[in-house]
Amino acid sequence: MTTLQTEPANGPSARPGEESADRTDWVAAIPFLAVHVAPLAAFFVTVTWQDWLLCGVLYLVRMFCITAGYHRYFAHRSYKMNRVFQFVMAFGGTTAVQKGPLWWASHHRVHHRFTDLDGDVHSPRDGFWWSHVGWILSTRYKATDLDNIADFAKYPELRWLERHQWIGPWSLGVTCFLLGGWGGLLVGFFLSTVLLWHGTFLVNSMAHLVGRRRYATPDTSRNSLFVALVTGGEGWHNNHHYLPASVRQGFRWWEIDPTFYVLRTLAALHVVRDLKRPPARLLDQARMRDGAFDIGMFRSYWERAAKLTGERMADMAARPHLAPEGAEAPAPEPAAAVNGVGDDTDVSATSRQRPIPRARAAADQLAAATRRTRRQDMVSTEGQPGPDDSTA
Ligand SMILES: [Zn+2]
Ligand SMILES: [Zn+2]
């Protein structure tokens, strides 16, 4: 990101008629694809065990900079640190090649504000590909809404880093080459970067599609051990959507959360402070049986069913001879449904807006009220034992 012009924060379904902004920008995607292909060249060079070690270390360290830095600090402010460590964490995040901290955190805040609603930047309701990587490769979300991240955009050193975010990846790539030659570059840097990307992306795609739900959040978020293992604790995504301001995402002792363990260690060393922990009573509110009735996907399925029904009715209207004998063909639906036939773009644009507007409005209101209450209830409880510390 070299420009920081502001852009309204809207999801793919929020601006019908601008669908071209949602298509993959394949020219801009060339570097992204090239990084994926680069590790294959390792078959033609000597790769040592040190290169594999470098790959593992760079994966873990950079994943921590993303989960503890970009996510839990810049996006959610779930703990505090001084300006020097803040910059170090931000710089470490840029080496993960996931754009700058302001871009990352600003878009993530939008994800939480509109999770699975119109306006969500990467809801799986718009497809697995879109939530995993499509939204990043589209042109819609290239800009950074600085107003949405004004609390960190006020620091000139972070704005500078955002403009020069290439320095981190390039300096790390050169260092890997100097340390391990081509093996160090191809396996140590490029392979770990590809793994790191898709590990992070799984939180946006898989952790909203596969897994169990503990809390009745108005979205599709899930708890996934696999994603937690791959991301150092970010897989407890249903927990996280329930209490986004909590520095800890694994609420039970067995919900492995290495990012939190490292942060707790850093707090003991006075590198970070004021870790926000949810009070115990919040952990049992809005709780449901794991794998119980799923509000988020129910709405999604409901809308899909409504879309299919609308299409079928429009189809019947267009071919009245197929209507059952004696039955009156449904009157051609004005606007959306009819336009939807034979025009994929219109189907996607209209189907997200037409069905069940009242139910959606009610769900949105409920979601907003729940988030407000939870934000007010969240307190900084650093130093006090968490609910599971005795068993952790
Ligand atoms: Zn999410
Ligand atoms: Zn989050």
Question: What this model shows, in words?
Answer:
- It is a single chain.
- By secondary structure, this protein is mainly α.
- The protein has two domains: 19-284, no CATH class; 295-355.
- 53% of the residues lie in helices and 2% in strands.
- The protein contains 16 helices and four strands.
- Strands 1-2 form a two-stranded antiparallel ribbon. Strands 3-4 form a two-stranded antiparallel ribbon.
- The longest helix has 38 residues, at 167-204.
- It is globular and about 65 Å long.
- Mean pLDDT is 80; it is low at 5-17, 322-356 and 380-392.
- One zinc ion binds next to helix 2 and helix 4.
- Residues 111, 115, 208, 221, 237, 241 line the site of one zinc ion (ZN).
Ends apart, CA distance between termini = 41 Å
Please state the CA-atom Rg, rounded to the nearest Å. Answer: 23 Å
Shape: globular
Query: Beta fraction of the residues?
Result: under 5%
| Attached small molecules | zinc ion
> Which runs of at least 5 residues are low in confidence (pLDDT < 50)?
5-17, 322-356, 380-392
- What is the count of DSSP helices, taking H or I runs of 4+ residues? 16
Quaternary class: single chain
The counted number of beta strands is 4
Overall domain count: 2
Helix content class: 40-55%
